[in-house]
């Protein structure tokens, strides 16, 4: 049986070494959902998500720590803000959009997967750490042009590309901070 989530993934890093992947899902098997996958400077992998989301996400990916807490994402036309516990992020999105047409899963698993690896260093098809097959079907890509962040009132530093592996799933996001609108198909 195929499950589908639709929404966006925004990924970015900071000069402090903190790296984030923010999921903002308009639809999923558990409803509307926002989450933050957080790679700390020491490599610790943390999930921030509400309880219903944490249960669903950890059935697909693995983390060193799961913090069950609200995640609020406010998405404007060219801005995004994220609040969860003592984390606050403000993100500016570029206006240049790379739109992509709809494609069947076999194209995502073959041609698109090859192109994505060659151009962005990321994969569009693979198997999660818990054995779930995934097809990341990108609809559009927008660059993150600026960002600021606070963690317990400490400044996270300047926006940076994502350095090093994050280790959440079968692939890491593009190194360049970006927001990808996509449809993800999952088969357990």
What labels would you give this structure?
13-stranded mixed β-sheet, 13 strands, globular, 188 residues, mainly beta
Can you describe this structure?
It is a single chain. Helices cover 13% and strands 52% of the residues. It is mostly beta strands. The chain has one domain (2-187). A hairpin with a 5-residue loop joins strand 2 (19-27) and strand 3. The N and C termini lie close together (7 Å).
Topology diagram in text:
Layout: E1 2-14, E2 19-27, E3 33-39, E4 45-49, H1 51-58, E5 65-68, E6 72-75, E7 79-84, E8 87-99, H2 105-120, E9 125-127, E10 133-151, E11 154-155, E12 159-160, E13 178-187
Parallel strand pairs: 4-5
Antiparallel strand pairs: 1-2, 1-12, 1-13, 2-3, 3-4, 6-7, 7-8, 8-10, 9-10, 10-11, 10-13
Helical amount: 10-25%
Number of discrete domains:
1
Largest sheet: 13 strands, mixed
Number of strands: 13
So how many helices? 2
What is the 3D form? Answer: globular
In terms of DSSP E residues, the strand content is: over 45%
Q: What low-confidence regions span 5 or more consecutive residues with pLDDT below 50?
A: none
Radius of gyration: 15 Å
Separation of termini? 7 Å
**Which class do the helix and strand fractions yield?**
mainly beta
Order of helices and strands, N to C? Answer: EEEEHEEEEHEEEEE
Q: Output mean pLDDT.
A: 95
């Amino acid at each position: 049986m195929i499950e589908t989530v639709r929404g966006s993934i925004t990924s970015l890093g900071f000069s402090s070494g903190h790296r984030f992947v923010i999921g903002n899902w308009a639809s999923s098997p558990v409803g509307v959902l926002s989450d933050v996958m957080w790679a700390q400077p020491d490599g610790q992998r943390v999930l921030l998500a509400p309880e219903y989301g944490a249960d669903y996400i950890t059935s697909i990916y693995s983390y060193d720590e799961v913090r069950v807490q609200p995640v609020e994402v406010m998405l404007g036309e060219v801005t995004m803000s994220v609040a969860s516990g003592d984390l606050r992020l403000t993100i500016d999105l570029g206006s240049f959009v790379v739109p992509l047409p709809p494609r069947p899963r076999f194209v995502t698993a073959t041609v698109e997967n090859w192109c994505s690896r060659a151009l962005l260093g990321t994969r569009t098809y693979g198997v999660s750490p818990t054995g779930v097959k995934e097809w990341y079907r990108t609809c559009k890509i927008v660059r993150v042009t600026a960002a600021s962040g606070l963690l317990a009132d400490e400044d996270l530093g300047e926006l940076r590309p994502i350095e090093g592996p994050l280790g959440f799933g079968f692939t890491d996001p593009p190194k360049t901070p970006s927001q990808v609108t996509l449809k993800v198909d999952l088969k357990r």
